[in-house]
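mind reviewing both lines:
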Amino acid sequence: MSADHVNEPFTAFSFRVELWLPGASSALCDAAFSSCDGLEMRFDVHSVREGGGGPPRLFTAPAAPGHVTLRRGMTSSFELWEWCTAVARDRGPRADCLVVVLDPGGESERARFRLRGCLPVRLRGPALDASTGAVAIEELELACESLSLEPDAPDPEPAPLVRAEFRELDARFEREINQDRWVSAQVNPQSIDLTYANPEPRAGGPGSATLALELWFDESEVQANGQPLDVGDLTGALAYFITPRAAGHGRELQPPAVRLTWGTFVFDGHVDSLQQSLEFFGPDARPGRVRVCLTMSRPWVRLAASAASSP
């Protein structure tokens, strides 16, 4: 292939779009899409102005794919509407989308974009107007979990994701106990807020360390033996860590000691508050999604005091 041909710009009119549901033997719809727009990666760039007159410093967050809009002439194939109806019912069936850029003759591939974990954001029916002879066009807007420009070689398998986990400790915060009570996050928190506070000067004693985070649980993600679970099973297990109980004979009620571990991050303390927001109730009155806001705290001894007491 000559260098001139390699550097030749792609044409925008020759392409193919395929939507595939898991386990399907054929693409979601058999009609060709006439338009595809929104193949983009978005970067959340934060600009921090440095004191002293230096140039601004730029920090980036993980990239996120944009929304892709597909348009086609509406036909008697209603599979797109059936898919959207299924998602509205149980929000489970995600699709993979393949956008292939072809040469002007439509015979060979020039580039291939793969969108994984697609869900419909909007499906819009055609605008109907008896005064024109235009083709009825329907429009599908997709959100996806990842977007990649595929090379000739397949992408390597992603590294397994480490999950944040809540583990019970004994009353002395020394041993991990009751492993059957441990709870793993279904979706890792996006961030963890830590606050360290010194004691009041006249109060003495230790200060405190406080942790706050947000967790999500969704029935479309929870699977056990191929069957969806009630998200209440997981949130109920998490509520165990804020339920007071007697630590020993004659002792007052208190919640269990907890260790939050996520990779190299470890925080030991007690759960102070656990707020649940339930939504997407089904016909059986069970919630399909729960947002959990959780706070933990522990006494914190200042490093200077610890160093002074060490031999």
The mean pLDDT is 83. The first helix runs from residue 3 to 6. The chain has four helices and 23 strands.
